[in-house]
Structures are given as C-alpha cells and as structure tokens.
Amino acid sequence: PILEVPHSIYYNVIYFSNILADCLVISYGSMFALYSNKILSKTSFFYPRKIW
C-alpha cells in the first residue's frame, strides 16, 4: 500500500493534467477561431469590392 499510493497519485496527476491540457487546447483553439473570424469579417467588410 505504501508503494501504491504515490503511484495512484502520480497517475491521477497525469490524468488531470491531460484533461487540463485538452481544455486549454480547446479554449485556445476557439479563441483563435473567433479571432480569425473577426479578421476575415473585417477584411471582407473593408474590401468587398476588391474581392468580388
């Protein structure tokens, strides 16, 4: 039991850090998508005649 407790804590830390990393990737991806959509909407708003 003495050896199993740090082992389980270690795997729990890895598990929760993986969950946090996934959440950070999802949040940064959504922020980047919103930012790129803002840039595209601004460029299409300011230059609609040059594109079409």
A few lines on this structure:
With 52 residues, the protein is mainly alpha-helical. The chain has helices spanning 4-46, 48-51.
Structural class: mainly alpha
Spans where pLDDT lies below 50 across 5 or more residues: none
Question: So how many helices?
Answer: 2
Strand content: under 5%
Instruction: Report how far the terminal alpha carbons are from each other.
Output: 71 Å
Average pLDDT works out at 74
H-E order: HH
Please tell me how large the radius of gyration is: 22 Å
Give the beta-strand count.
0
Q: Specify the biggest β-sheet.
A: none
Question: How many domains would you count in the coordinates?
Answer: 1
Keywords: Membrane, Transmembrane, Transmembrane helix
Protein name: Bgt-20928
Description:
The protein has one domain (4-51). It is mainly alpha-helical and 52 residues long. It has two helices and no strands. This is Bgt-20928. Keywords: Membrane, Transmembrane, Transmembrane helix. The chain crosses the membrane at residues 13-35.
Layout of helices and strands:
Elements: H1 4-46, H2 48-51
Which key terms come to mind for this protein?
52 residues, mainly alpha, transmembrane helix
